[in-house]
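QUALITY CONTROL LOG
STEP: pairwise intake check
CHECKER ROLE: data steward
CRITERIA: each record must contain a sequence immediately followed by its structure tokens, with no blank fields

ENTRY 1 OF 2
RESULT FIELD BELOW
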Amino acid sequence: MGSIWRRRTGLAPVPHDSGTMRGRPAVDGGRRALRQVLYQAAFAAECHNPVLMPLAKRLRARGKPYKIVIIAIARRLFTIANAIVKTGETWRPQAG
């Protein structure tokens, strides 16, 4: 279920392949407004969310490009939001 919803939000990588030509996957498609909101929220979460800051530091330490880090945080935010909606509970940050 997670994969289809990531595609619908525009956070899943879309390969740009044609025949024998291979292109770099890019984040594209989906609902533009939702993707933009998650992208902006990821910028704030990278610096201020105590649960997602270690994720950002870990990815940067591995040498990942900045945009890859932001998209990974946006995907994690989307997963957290889905869990909150599904369970109906309030969000309680847990160090991960």
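ENTRY 2 OF 2
RESULT FIELD BELOW
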Amino acid sequence: MITVPATLTEPFAREALGFLRASVSPAVVNHSIRAYAYAEFLVDRWDVRGARGVRPRALFFAATLHDLGLSEAGARRPDRFEVAGADPAVEHLLDNGVDARTADRVWEAIALHTSTGIAQRRGLLCRLVATGTGLDFGVDSEAVTDGMAADLHDRYPRPGTASALHAGIVGQARAVPAKAPVGSPARYLVEVDDLGAPADIPMRWGD
């Protein structure tokens, strides 16, 4: 079973989750919590609990807030959605007493979470967030059984997760082309949409 950490019930976590729920759709909220659960699953699988670079609060913030770029505040920013999410996430953390060093590491993990091959080289926090996020879409998910995923989906359903993220990213990019620079996931999704073709993303557990 993919354990949902008790962290979610702590005051700092409730505050951040309240901010998340007020900012993005339920589909994105559930995806973000599942990504966090998968990241914690990887901490144990990789036997890195207590390792330097894995601070529980930083991992929670980076994983759960990684898609804030899909909020209305993120949409108003001209940056690609990853950076447009990292900025308000850090602003929220600093406003709520999180130290600047932790906030900076969270910013990096959020900004790089779609940068495959780069996130994995920027420290354990970035690697955990990028890999945990990918697991929710079935990327390199051999260690996750269908039963484990189904149990997590029972607690945090996936009501059109991929469709919601796809629509949000593409919609923002069409409204503000600067959000889809060459080589970005947003540019790829826009181009795939223009061709009327499906995105080449593993969808092991459906939408």
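INTAKE CHECK: passed for both entries
DESCRIPTIVE NOTE, ENTRY 2: The chain has a mean pLDDT of 91.
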